[in-house]
Amino acid sequence: MNTYARIIVLCAIVPMVMLITTGALTAEAFSVNTSIISVSESGNKMMVIQSSRQPNHKKNQTAISMKRNHPLSIAVEENEQGPGVSNNRRDFLTNAIVATAVGIASSSTFGPTPANAAASSITPKEAREQFEAVIATTDKLLAEWDTVIQGGGDAIRTQLGTNGPGTPFYKIDKAIKVLQNNCEDPITFGEASEEFEVRRASADAMAYSAIFTGGSGKPTPPEVYYKKSRVEVDALKRVEAEMLSAL
């Protein structure tokens, strides 16, 4: 825990000590046991604080949900309530003070959530290398277009990284986010990256449409969709150059 977090924890605990000495809290002994009960798939950490008081033996449960964007958000839920339980000011102050102190300490101790760790796992150097590989893939796709379309619409989509892994386009959005935070002209790069996604999605949609051409009547030939997809890939190449110049 860093110095700043320790100071905040002390600021949260000192009022509790003052309340005890002035009689706001009775001399009834209570204990706090903490345990991490789950880490959800979204990266949220949960800590449960259970406090028991004598002689009533009533239990309150305070759940602290340390979410990615709001690590100190606190929700209090009371279980096993009976007559006269948790309606007095002393119980509320006990739970609130302890929950705040442990929440601050835990947010400093646990470190980044899995989601944040995953986002930071790509270095700017790796992100740039992937983006440059994407540019090379686009150039190759255009140069070998007539050969690629022999494999149908899915062949185009595979090159664009929208039909599973296999090319640098796959999960390029993560690299783009890293580059957005490490470029010389973030505004130009950000605007170009938005068009990048639009052009890529359009090229993918046209390639996907080519897969389902045919049938009775006068169906649209797949070549029509191949041409439309190529128009989008040509535009994609132009946008990639704008993004590269903004780095």
Could you describe the 3D structure shown?
Keywords: Signal. Residues 1-19 form the signal peptide. With 247 residues, the chain is of the alpha+beta class. It folds into two domains: 3-111, no CATH class; 122-246, Four Helix Bundle (Hemerythrin (Met), subunit A), CATH 1.20.120. The protein is built from nine helices and four strands. The chain has helices spanning 3-22, 89-110, 114-119, 124-143, 145-148, 153-159, 172-180, 186-211, 222-246; strands spanning 30-39, 45-53, 59-66, 74-77. The chain has a four-stranded antiparallel sheet, covered by helices on one side. Helix 1 (3-22) packs antiparallel against helix 2 (89-110), helix 4 packs across helix 7 (172-180) and helix 4 packs antiparallel against helix 9. It is elongated and about 70 Å long. The protein starts with a helix and ends with a helix. The model is unreliable at 23-86 and 96-119 (pLDDT under 50).
CATH architecture of the largest domain: Up-down Bundle
- Determine the number of helices (DSSP H or I, runs of at least 4 residues): 9
Percent in strands: 5-15%
Count of beta strands: 4
Which structural class is indicated by helix and strand composition?
alpha+beta
Main sheet specs: 4 strands, antiparallel
Uncertain runs are 23-86, 96-119
Q: What is the CATH third-level topology name of the largest domain?
A: Four Helix Bundle (Hemerythrin (Met), subunit A)
Question: What is the averaged pLDDT score?
Answer: 70
CATH class of the largest domain: Mainly Alpha
Order of helices and strands: HEEEEHHHHHHHH
| Terminal CA distance | 36 Å
Shape: elongated
The Cα radius of gyration reads: 29 Å
Helix content: 55-70%
Strand order of the largest sheet: 1-2-3-4
Signal peptide: 1-19
Keywords: Signal
